[in-house]
Protein 1
Amino acid sequence: METKTHQQLHIFFLPFMGQGHTLPLIDIAKLFASRGEKSTIITTPANAPLFTKAIQTSRSSGLEIEFLLIKFPSTEVGLPEGIESRNWAETGEMAEKFFKALTLLKQEVERLLDQHHPQCLVASSLFHWSTDLAAKFGIPRLIFQGPGFFSLCAAMSVTLYQPHMKVASDSESFLLPNLPHEIKMTRNELPYFLTHQNSEGELFKLLGALKETEERSYGIIINSFYELEPDYVDHYRKVFGRKSWHIGPVSLCNKAEKDISARGREGSVDDVHECLQWLNSKKPRSVVYVCFGSLNSFSDCQLLEIALGLEASQQQFIWTVKKEKNDKEVWLPEGLEQRMEGKGLIIRGWAPQLLILQHEAVGAFLTHCGWNSILEGVTAGVPMITWPVFADQFYNEKLVTQILGIGVAVGSQKSEDGGVKSEASVKREAIEKAVTDIMEGEEAEEIRSKAIALGEIARSAVEDGGSSFLDLTSLIEELRSFGS
């Protein structure tokens, strides 16, 4: 922790209520606190347990960090009490009501700003009203964007130039205009809201309100580092003319094993111990880690294809399956766990992802290409098998496979907007091939070497003098001089 030589900044953080957004913003709050500033996170009662451990350990090490509770308007929009996270809104109707509730949080946040008078408000992009609210109190609003620079530039290219409107079919490829690299996509791969811009619903209303308020915001914080996507950091700043700061990978602020293992959700000590004990028995880089994030759910027929593909690859694996304990698991091939005993480990529910990826036994990561997972894989120096499902994940796949060259694609071809497909879109043969290629194929060693080198750069970026360390320093200095 740095010694305070200036007047301390007090910064408010307002994370979107979804695990993939909340976790990095907790880490960002810890980063500011580690520089001697005061961080206050605004959250709701049902989301508070996600913060508790991180705040306790940070405060015990001398950091000034806290969280304040606001009421989530569940009942006002017709949601059951306690549904306060996008992860818990399981149906389309519940999701609609959840997004409607976000706009009703303004009054509660305004009350806290008036009471505590912070010098800055860092709010997730979906809180479009926070730009005007910060202006009312004469402080800057910084946007926290979940994706990286490449994804933002690619999305901006599609929005500005509409290349997807110039092709005849959803499967015909088109070039993304005005980008540093030649990147081709299809309409099938684009986020749903970009190809259905005239659709109705709370999410589309919300997205429609974002652009103008984003342009009026003070700037944007990105969980990335310069060396990962330098052409796109420069492109975003020069071509779009927006202030931005790359301060990641922010997960690296978690250094103690207890902080890493508890990140997101604290599994039982026995669960974590079993997982690490299993990995400890394996040779270096011999295990494939399979995880598809906190929002994605696959149909039983797709889970069956994954199980059979992993078995056919004859590679060792840890597979985190998002299934409730009372599921009958009709997708699980009879006798698979017995046949794969000692070679494959299936974890139902939560797993300590950071600990798993950092373990020397892990040689590849089969991922849904969520930005947090991509950065965690990069930081660990682990090659990736990419299986995007929706949103920005198809953009992220292009970065990993085509620009960075640290992964292979499994062959997912259509964005499903987080929905569960009724049939398997990726077959066992494709899964077997991708797993085999990344572990022992002709190009495996070259891919692994690139991943390891990039991991070293990622870790140095947040150290004193690194690109992200310096960008955070620059941001803090700018916030100090705001309004002076």
Protein 2
Amino acid sequence: MSSALNGQKTFITGAASGIGRATAELAARKGAELVLTDVNASGLAEVAASITASGGKVLMFRAFDITDYETVVAFGKQVHDAHGSLDIVMNVAGISAWGTVENLEHKHWRSMIDVNLMGPIHIIEVFIPPMIAAKRGGHLVNVSSAAGLLALPWHAAYSASKFGLRGLSEVLRFDLKRHHIKVHLVVPGAVKTPLVETVEIAGVDRADPKIQKYVNLFVKAAITPEQAAAKIVEGIEKNRFMVYTSRDIEFGYWWARKFAAPYEFVMQQANNKFSSVLPD
């Protein structure tokens, strides 16, 4: 196979459903050797069995909560002891809650930050340093959102986490370049996943016909998880930093940003300057 994923040890979070599952299945078909996790134990086991039955290779899978740092550390040790450092790490797992600031409760803010930002940070802390030490390069994929680029209504708590993941990715894009680890920031718009039907909208009744109207419009505009997965893999294979899953988000962000080229040049030069003082 000519794919950049062929033979690559690839870790995917959120692999039991949605974009995570679709990406795991596509990566397997591309020849990746998979390490999978999700909080849904039965769903994860079903995905691992399905991939294996289809001829894919699953090195390990384990159900756990990525917000639990000690559990991530323990799993990382098991993975590294058994298989060494990884080649590709994909932070796909995430949750969502919408609402205006007067309706959002502390639990909403806390859960968005814990799962969507601290979860990926835990994965990066545990799995990226061994990749650096191995000196083989690799790929880090962080799934943010259109809400990490644009000020979408009712998305304050969700955007706080997704803008955070975007900022983290922007820094690591330059920071990891000297280690030949490429960073990919995925910014999906509407995707038809189970999250669409379960997302909590604080302060409103989802059964309200007005709310259902907006949910239905979202579903009509949504792409499939398989389409999103194809864009993610294409982003890896073509070494793209920003990975759009649909043209509407790409167009919207094009309007929102300015002076991208000078910004990228200055940030890379600044990062190079800071990196020059590090010990070899």
